[in-house]
């Protein structure tokens, strides 16, 4: 048996590092030497293709981390199967900066979208598996929110892959729908209260 608290500590550290590493590719080129303020503004605006994947990835990782924090279990210890799935999940999290760099540089190529969206799809699927094997889950709204958040990431990842065949740049924006999770949460809460 393994301490759930130690796994949570490792998870927090990995999420923190992965989220920090995302920004390292959002930088001006080394050979960029603006002569005027206008040049600097244009140089910063040219970073948009890298900044969008950074924002998307930070949001996806932030929502995944929040979902993990919200998931409540009474278990203080977990078994080897759970630990193995959790380590696979964290392995996928550590890869997000790499796939973000690829899509930030090559978003106009469908394979970059496939790599990125396929990666987020795997994160969501492994997250769903983890939820299904978490011992002694406490029922409640938090569990439903976690399920909805995972399903939304699966759906937007699949949508991005499908859209990449027609318009890769638009496909990347499909993943921005994950930011609608709080709105969906509010809507579902109001709907359940009305019943």
Please write the string of helix (H) and strand (E) elements: EHHHEHHHHHH
Query: How many structural domains?
Result: 1
| Helical content band | over 70%
Strand content: under 5%
- Rounded to the nearest angstrom, the radius of gyration is 19 Å
Q: How are strands sequenced across the largest beta sheet?
A: 1-2
Overall residue-averaged pLDDT value: 90
State the end-to-end distance.
42 Å
Unreliable stretches covering 5 or more consecutive residues: none
Helix vs. strand class: mainly alpha
Number of DSSP helical runs: 9
Note the overall shape: globular
The total count of strands amounts to 2
Largest sheet: 2 strands, antiparallel
Structural overview:
This protein is an all-alpha fold and 195 residues long. The protein contains nine helices and two strands; from the N terminus they run βαααβαααααα. Strands 1-2 form a two-stranded antiparallel ribbon. The mean pLDDT is 90.
Helix and strand arrangement:
Elements: E1 2-3, H1 4-21, H2 37-45, H3 48-70, E2 77-78, H4 80-94, H5 96-106, H6 110-133, H7 141-164, H8 168-174, H9 181-194
